[in-house]
Specification:
The chain is of the alpha+beta class and about 270 residues long. Helix content is about 20%, strand content about 40%. The chain is built from six helices and 18 strands. The protein has an 18-stranded mixed beta sheet that branches.
């Protein structure tokens, strides 16, 4: 079975977020997929096989299956087009635990049609808030949560986002799958040297899912898109995820959906022998 490693949300090798993509010829056992994901030891490994007019798609971290993953979906679409499984002029339909997802090529970019995951504010007197503040080492401007079981934390500046040094052991004790830390960034130069007309930046931490920091997180932008779109009164946004690898995401709000745009580069291709 063909296996590729693809750097998603990047236009160059060794940037963005790496994902493994396993192109299957049939459905396989869940335990085997989990074992392969642990062997790959990347934040996500995607498994897909033909089903009806599209492809059944599942995502696994090294320790568990997840309901939604943006960068591994981007990588899966890139793999299908690059290997010739699907003509480059044809859109791709994925059947997943989060419903039907669609991928389309827009020149060198790939657009993913994902469900929006709006954020609602957590109660100000929530006893978990002091623990979150201690784990992050910052004072939030806003704390919310989404249906994806992610907590979204807005802080005062891009520097606060980039300078974060979370206590992952404390973060892992919080009752959520992941924590998004974000700030507005229009017109501001980032510590990383990146300069662009980014509307907001973010980082994503998920130690409970076996991922201390995810390099670039598509599913987090299903929360960030509606949040910043509403605050900035914009339907289209440009985002930067400020992990050490970094990545650029286009975000477009579309009713109850979020259109995520990104680029991808294949860095490894081979065959699974067992």
């Amino acid at each position: 079975m063909k296996l590729l490693q693809i750097d998603a949300f990047s236009d160059r090798p060794y940037g963005g977020n790496p994902a493994a993509v396993c192109l299957l010829d049939r459905a396989v056992e869940e335990s085997w997929m989990q074992a392969v994901a642990a062997e790959m030891n990347l934040s996500e490994t995607a498994f897909l096989h033909r089903e009806g007019r599209g492809f059944r798609l599942r995502w696994f971290t090294p320790t568990t299956e997840v309901d939604l993953c943006g960068h591994a979906t981007l990588a899966a679409a890139h793999a299908l087009w690059e290997t010739g499984f699907v003509p480059t002029t044809t859109s791709i339909q994925f059947y997943t635990r989060s419903g039907d997802l669609k991928a389309e090529r827009q020149q060198s970019w790939i657009e993913l049609d994902f469900p929006a995951a709006p954020v609602v504010q957590r109660p100000p007197k929530d006893p978990m808030i002091p623990k979150l503040e201690a784990a992050l080492g910052v004072i939030p401007l806003f704390i919310g949560e989404s249906v994806l079981d992610y907590w979204l934390v807005e802080v005062a500046s891009p520097e606060d986002v980039e300078d974060l040094k979370p206590d992952f052991a404390q973060l892992a004790q919080l009752p959520c799958k992941g924590v998004i830390v974000t700030s507005r960034s229009q017109g501001m130069r980032l510590h990383s040297g990146r300069q662009g007309d980014y509307d907001f930046i973010s980082r994503f931490f998920a130690p409970r899912m076996g991922i201390n920091e995810d390099p670039v997180t598509g599913s987090a932008h299903c929360c960030l898109g509606p949040y910043w779109g509403r605050k900035l009164k914009k339907m289209q946004l440009l985002a930067y995820q400020a992990s050490p690898r970094g990545g650029v995401i286009r975000v477009r709000r579309d009713a109850e959906r979020v259109i995520l745009g990104g680029q991808a580069v294949t860095v490894l291709e081979g065959m699974l022998l067992a």
